[in-house]
Specification:
Elements lengths: L2 E8 L13 E10 L3 H15 L10 H14 L5 E8 L12 H19 L3 E5 L5 H14 L10 E3 L6 H17 L7 H4 L4 E7 L18 H19 L6 H20 L7 H9 L8 H14 L5 E3 L2 E3 L4 H33 L12 H10 L1
Parallel strand pairs: 1-4, 3-6, 4-5
Antiparallel strand pairs: 1-2, 2-3, 7-8
Length: 378
């Protein structure tokens, strides 16, 4: 079904932070289905007439907060969704090409238009003016040539003003509200207040957080002895609890733990035991025939689930004996887990945008923990 996106840029392109509100720039797109456009326009006109009597919002003070809260509450009744790109200009290099107006608008607009055109089919765009007619025409060509998916049947793209298009005023209100909240000027976060309407606020630039802790040169410390003792104690406890079991899988797990403990205690406690070596040892008992996959799922995983401390890396498995072992283990898994979570979050946001928020995979109770993790990462 065809949709129209009304795009408004709130904030300026420069790096002169003369007031707290100058720190952020946002591009907000209000998305409506073509057949509901007039209905949403009329609904927003009525809201505006009730709450914005002179055509201007009150300053962000106590009265202004009340006014904005009332508007946000009434917007929940309208049939639209919105998506935004939020830019914290304090994190940008002020001597980069983004200091130039044309580059700033084209590059940042490209981020949101590329996402929109790849995700929302049959999308027409109405954007707020960005400068001179010459610049706007070059900008329009830039978007059509660089960010539309179907070059043979380009979607409509036009500029208009807030006076001509009421839904540009709605995009303006949402964008300015986002800027105010993230600049610390307002307590109202439209992303939360209109959670049912918001199909993603992408923050840029994305903060880089390394997935690993540097263990090079990490010296032995007072915790190493405690880690070693805990690893041995838990391994021995596991063997005692399962002594006498006739279950072939349990017996295989005991062989695995015994081998780890033997190498750790009598051989070389810093040595990782390669999976191939462990499989050879385990299969020599003929309790079960283990492949790498069966070994990981039937032996290693369940042993860890019962509390035995086992660290692993591409070099194999061992019991930990130092903080360096522990950090290496966390690094190994964090490098896999964090990108997986990021991909899930990206997929979720894309589906929200594509369906106008109607598909929210994470609302199921089975995904409650996953939802909390992704919320912290967003």
């Amino acid at each position: 079904m065809a949709k129209v996106g009304f795009v408004y840029g709130a904030g300026a392109h420069g790096f002169r932070f003369e007031s707290p509100g100058d720190t952020h720039f946002s591009l907000t797109v209000v998305l409506v289905e073509e057949e509901h456009k007039r209905e949403v326009e009329e609904g927003f006109r009525r809201i505006r007439e009730r709450h914005i009597l002179d055509g201007k919002l009150s300053p962000v003070d106590a009265h202004g907060i009340v006014q904005r809260r009332q508007i946000l509450e009434e917007l929940k009744k309208l049939n639209f969704s919105f998506h935004a790109l939020l830019v914290d200009k304090r994190k940008l290099h002020q001597k980069s090409p983004l200091q130039y107006k044309g580059t700033f608008y084209k590059f940042l607009s490209g981020l949101i238009y590329n996402n929109l055109y790849r995700t929302v089919p049959q999308l027409g765009v109405v954007a707020s003016p960005l400068g001179s007619p010459e610049f706007m025409e070059s900008f329009r060509r830039y978007i059509l040539e660089n960010h539309q998916v179907d070059l043979f049947s380009p979607a409509p793209f036009a500029f208009s003003t807030e006076g001509e298009e009421p839904l540009l005023q709605l995009a303006s209100f949402l964008g300015e509200s986002l800027n105010s909240f993230h600049a610390g000027l307002s307590e109202l976060d439209p992303e939360q207040e209109l959670a049912g309407k918001c199909v993603g606020v992408n923050r840029w630039p994305e903060g880089y957080v390394p997935y690993t802790v540097d263990t090079e040169g990490m010296a032995a410390d007072a915790q190493d002895e405690a880690i070693t003792a805990a690893a041995q104690l838990r391994a021995r406890d596991y063997l005692q609890r399962h002594a006498g079991s006739e279950d072939p899988v349990i017996k295989s797990r005991m062989v695995f733990v015994e081998y780890l403990l033997m190498v750790f205690t009598y051989n070389y406690r810093t040595r990782y035991i390669h999976t191939h070596e462990l499989l050879q040892h385990l299969n020599s008992y003929r309790y079960e025939n283990y492949t790498e996959h069966r070994f990981r799922s039937l032996v290693v995983g369940p042993v860890r689930d019962e509390g035995v401390l086992i660290v692993s890396s591409s070099a194999g498995y061992k019991l930990p004996c130092s903080t360096r072992d522990i950090y290496s283990f966390f690094n190994y898994y964090n490098q896999q887990i964090q990108p997986m979570l990021a991909r899930l979050g990206q997929c979720h946001r894309a589906l929200e945008l594509a369906t106008g928020g109607e598909l929210n995979v994470l609302e199921h109770p089975e995904y409650a923990s996953l939802r909390k993790l992704l919320e912290k990462l967003s």
